[in-house]
């Protein structure tokens, strides 16, 4: 074992320093408490880099073997939770290198040849994010399936559709469910293009100027599963656009779910009573025994705010940084990990709460009131040849008539309707029917049954062929 670099508290960068780091500064500077989450990716990157060094003639096969063997042993310690973080372990890169040198001796120091923590950290983060995106995509797919499955099963349930939170037109509950599935489908498409942009390899960029040794960066990139090596070393070590883009993506997903959660919060109130949350996704009040609170959905709504805050916070860190790596960038991981963990919770809770709630079909039905058919009165006249603008006015007159006579549409005698337009005949009675109303919207994208069925089929087809890596 080497004496240098292996003893407690010796810094990787300690050569020119005489004085010790202030303990408060030491803590302030350290990122190991959170970047240890990348232990696997850090080792993965080092193994590939050691092989690249061997190919470049900078390590003998034997040296490379002992480094990769040592890294494998470090990896096993992490996996078994026996890795001991030491006081001088500033970050995951320092910790792994320190341990490697303890295990294999001075040769361990060769793995950093031409490499800097600057290209190392950017590579680790991209590897970590790539793994995470694959994982989060499966949670998102799970949630979309919950919404689509429900839409399939509950196609006959009708409810009011709202604009301005005012009752507008009758719709299918399935159509509402799918209206929250589609933005998530598009989020998956967005994720695929984001994955493509993330998937370039910064390793081999050094601290900033590049790699002075004949390291084959294209092969190195391929070994790590990246599609290519980054194009410019200065850009590579300073680039955190992938973190920003990912956090924007996560914020947008959470905003989509926050809007769905807002509807669910309203719809589960006594005033609406359209849905009943499962006990598994609601909580009670410590004071009011009758309460059942939609905390799952409220937290989804609240955490969407936190995620947008993370995005804006990190953009502020990036803004105005001088060229290449600056330690400010270390803040990236705090935000990236928090966003990752929060988004996973949001997706899992949303899927669970949406899968287990019960729809109150009768309450949805009771909320459908005949004035919501006013547009259909206009459409009735349009179908008899009247221009829509005139028909809209005539339908307004019919609404006025119901107000004057204090009755609903279906209670209006035909002779009264005839005073508004002689186009009204017996067949108008078919208009006073919510199923009939909903079924008019058969054009693609509407709330009619055939459109809902094609939406379900299209969403399922998308999910079954989806892959993060296909472009
Ligand atoms: N812990 C650092 C970070 O996360 C690693 C890179 C440090 N580079 C340096 N030159 N100090 O950003």
Q: Overview of this structure, please?
A:
It is a single chain. The chain has 3 domains: 3-113, Fumarase C, Chain B, domain 1 (Orthogonal Bundle), CATH 1.10.275; 118-366, Up-down Bundle (Fumarase C, Chain A, domain 2); 370-440, Ribonucleotide Reductase Protein R1, domain 1 (Orthogonal Bundle). Helices cover 59% and strands 4% of the residues. It is built from 18 helices and 6 strands. It has helices at 23-29, 32-35, 39-55, 61-79, 92-104, 117-153, 173-198, 217-223, 233-238, 241-267, 295-318, 331-356, 361-366, 374-383, 388-404, 414-420, 434-439, 449-465; strands at residues 158-163, 166-172, 200-201, 228-229, 275-276, 358-359. The longest helix is centred in the first third of the chain and has 37 residues, at 117-153. The model is unreliable at 1-8 (pLDDT under 50). Residues 31, 35, 91, 117-118, 121, 325, 327, 329-330 line the site of arginine. Arginine binds at residues 31, 35, 91, 117-118, 121, 325, 327, 329-330.
Strand order of the largest sheet: 1-2
Principal-axes shape call: elongated
Number of helices: 18
- Please write the CATH class name of the largest domain: Mainly Alpha
Bound molecules: arginine
CATH superfamily of the largest domain: Fumarase/aspartase (Central domain)
Quaternary = single chain
- What's the helical proportion of residues? 55-70%
Cα Rg = 31 Å
Corresponding CATH architecture of the largest domain: Up-down Bundle
Indicate how many domains the architecture comprises. Answer: 3
**H and E string:** HHHHHHEEHEHEHHEHHEHHHHHH
User: How much of the residues is beta strand, in percent?
Assistant: under 5%
Helix vs. strand class: mainly alpha
Write down the CATH topology of the largest domain: Fumarase C, Chain A, domain 2
Average pLDDT works out at: 95
């Amino acid at each position: 074992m080497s004496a240098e670099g292996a003893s407690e508290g010796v810094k990787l960068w300690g050569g020119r320093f005489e004085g010790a780091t202030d303990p408060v500064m030491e803590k302030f500077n350290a990122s190991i408490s959170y970047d240890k989450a990348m232990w696997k990716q850090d080792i993965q990157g080092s193994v590939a880099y050691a092989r690249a060094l061997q190919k470049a003639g900078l390590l003998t096969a034997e040296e490379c073997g002992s480094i990769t063997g040592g890294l494998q042993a470090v990896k096993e310690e992490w996996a078994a939770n026996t890795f001991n973080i030491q006081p001088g372990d500033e970050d995951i890169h320092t910790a792994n290198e320190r341990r490697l040198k303890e295990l294999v001796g001075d040769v361990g120091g060769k793995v950093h040849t031409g490499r800097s923590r600057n290209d190392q950290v950017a590579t680790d983060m991209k590897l970590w994010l790539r793994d995470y995106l694959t994982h989060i995509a499966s949670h998102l797919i799970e949630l979309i399936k919950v919404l689509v499955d429900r839409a399939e099963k509950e196609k006959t349930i009708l409810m009011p559709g709202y604009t301005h939170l005012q009752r507008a037109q009758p719709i299918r509950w399935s159509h509402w469910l799918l209206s929250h599935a589609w933005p998530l489908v598009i989020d998956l498409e967005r994720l695929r293009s984001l994955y493509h942009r993330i998937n370039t390899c910064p390793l081999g960029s050094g601290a900033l100027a590049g790699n002075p040794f004949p390291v084959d960066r294209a092969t190195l990139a391929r070994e790590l599963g990246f599609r290519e090596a980054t194009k410019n070393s200065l850009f590579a070590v300073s680039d955190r656009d992938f973190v920003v883009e990912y956090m924007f993506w996560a914020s947008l997903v959470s905003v989509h779910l926050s809007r769905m959660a807002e509807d669910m919060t309203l719809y589960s109130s006594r005033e609406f009573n359209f849905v009943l949350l499962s006990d598994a996704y609601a909580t009670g009040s410590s004071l009011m025994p009758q309460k059942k609170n939609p905390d799952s959905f409220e937290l989804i709504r609240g955490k969407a705010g936190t995620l947008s805050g993370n995005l804006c916070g990190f953009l502020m860190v990036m803004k105005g940084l001088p060229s290449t790596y600056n330690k400010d960038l270390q803040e990236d991981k705090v935000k990236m990990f928090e966003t990752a963990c929060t988004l996973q919770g949001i997706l899992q809770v949303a899927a669970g709460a949406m899968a287990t709630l019960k729809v109150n079909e009768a309450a949805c039905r009771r909320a459908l009131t005949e004035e919501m058919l006013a547009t259909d009165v206009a459409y009735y006249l349009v179908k008899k040849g009247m221009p829509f603008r005139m028909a809209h006015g005539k339908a307004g007159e019919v609404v006025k008539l119901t107000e004057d006579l204090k009755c609903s549409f279906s209670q209006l005698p035909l002779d009264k309707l005839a005073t508004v337009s002689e186009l009204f005949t017996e067949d108008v009675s078919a208009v006073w029917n919510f199923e009939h109303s909903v079924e008019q919207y058969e054009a693609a994208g509407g709330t009619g049954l055939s459109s809902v069925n094609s939406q379900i089929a299209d969403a399922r087809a998308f999910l079954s062929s989806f892959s993060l890596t296909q472009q």
